[in-house]
Amino acid sequence: MKHKKFFFSVLTVIILSVFSAATTQQARPQLTEQQKVLQVMHSISSRVLFDYVKELSSDKYWGRLTGTKGFNDSAKWVIAHLKKWGLKPGGDNNTFLQAFPNPYTLVFKDCSVSMNIPCKDGFIKKSYKYEDEFIPGSTSGSGEVTADVIYVGYGITAPELGFDEYAGLDVKGKIVLMEREAPVSPGKDEVFKKWRSYSFHQYKLENAVKHGAKGMLYNYGPIVNPNNSYAEGFIYSHVGKNVVADVFAGTGKKHADVVRQIQKTLKPHSFKTGKNFTIKNTTEHHPEGIGYNVIGILEGTDPGLKNKFILLGGHLDHLGRCYEIIPGANDNASADAVMMGIAEALSCSPVKLRRSIMFIFFGAEEQGVAGSKYYVENPIIPLDKTLALFNMDGVGVGTRLNALAGQNYPELFNFVRKANEAYVHRLITGPFFANNARPRLDAARFMWKNVPTLSFSAYGGGQSYYHVTKDKIDYIMPEIMEDLAQILFMTILDMDKQDELNFRN
């Protein structure tokens, strides 16, 4: 009798459990596809994106200078995640890497800039402080030069413009002090086009070498910049206002007035400064360097549309060591993190895209925007099959977003605006981009090839550092990265609903 009671008790519990589970199952509403999509959108986590930035900007990658082991190791780390999320390789020979020639230069610690002040017993040396007052040239030759300093304005020789800042000067064996850019602003479109080729760093250095100079004080920051030529034995460093002020002191001229006169008259105002400087840099040049773009593809599902691509891009590289490690947390590990967040979200979205998505982590953006230049000249898929590029550069510090070229491509920008207004509510501006100056963004290369492009950055609030050692994880604001990733995730899903997409009009 006791066994029978026990049997019925157990049976009752089982029946009630099954009934309860069934009732719960019926009571729980099934999620719609849109609700599932929103779940995926909200799974893009600022904490995870922050961890990605922390990893890429860590010392283990040595600043990710393209061509170095540090960059290659960071590429391997990104590729491991792309594989995990099911992306297909889009590079050479069924790999995730697209290779291109990329010379690079390593900069070591024994670097200095000093002014030699004459006194009764010879010279007093005034040494300048690393990063605050000088930074070694990232493509400087290795060695030391001591010489008189000659100011050569923008360092331009342009006979067709009646403008030669070396005219009447003997700079052989000397150090030249030079301004960056050109005396004409890119905003003056037609006029600037005549000067554009003279605004490149490479031209300025090569012209100084051509005139026999042995060294250069480049009035640029001081910030790190490996976007320049290499000339064996030519020693140069970037300097700031303190060094420039010391060169001009006692000359009877004010630096700001001289620059203003060059810009106003478009006439040279070069002169011997009477100052003597020593520049010393310790470097190692690698002309055999190879760079890589990291390319992963999320293939579309529609046989008729999957050969049309939407691109997401941002450069993986930074500045390496010069001579301290330049971490590049905001520039551009922040964008790499956002791309990775979008890649993971799209890979597990309940809505499978009809079109294909290509993720390009460009190499050598900091070395003349060389990775994207190589890609547009050797595209993995035809550029006319590329519907648009969403490029990102410096998206980790700020409270607002800027979509450069939004006015150039208003229909493309409208998809972004709608997604933001529906789900995130950040302030997003979309200014016009003339794209006249020397290329400073991967986006510029694509726009010149008639590929509709928006280039995102963050601004407004927070402390941002550019091309110096302080661009660290400490200043990253992960919420802005999360918002941008969510906006672009929803933008891409919305775009893919449309049967026709043509932003070239």
Task: Compute the number of helices.
Answer: 13
Structural class: alpha/beta
Q: Mind telling me which CATH architecture of the largest domain this is?
A: 3-Layer(aba) Sandwich
Average pLDDT number: 94
* Termini Cα gap: 87 Å
Shape, principal axes of CA atoms: elongated
> Total number of β-strand segments?
21
Describe the oligomeric state of these chains in a short phrase. single chain
- Look at the structure and give the CATH class of the largest domain: Alpha Beta
Q: Describe the biggest sheet?
A: 9 strands, mixed
At the fold tier of CATH, the topology name of the largest domain is Aminopeptidase
The parts where pLDDT drops under 50 for at least 5 residues are 1-8, 10-16, 21-25
The overall number of domains is: 2
Question: Explain this structure to me?
Answer:
The structure is a single chain. With 505 residues, the protein is of the alpha/beta class. It folds into two domains: 33-102 and 289-497, Aminopeptidase; 108-285, Glucose Oxidase, domain 1 (3-Layer(bba) Sandwich), CATH 3.50.30. The chain is 33% helix and 23% strand. The protein has 13 helices and 21 strands. Strands 1, 2, 15, 16, 17, 18, 19, 20 and 21 form a nine-stranded mixed β-sheet that branches. Helix 9 (329-347) links the parallel strand 16 and strand 17. Helix 3 crosses helix 13, helix 9 (329-347) packs across helix 13 (478-497) and helix 11 (410-424) crosses helix 13. The protein is elongated and about 90 Å long.
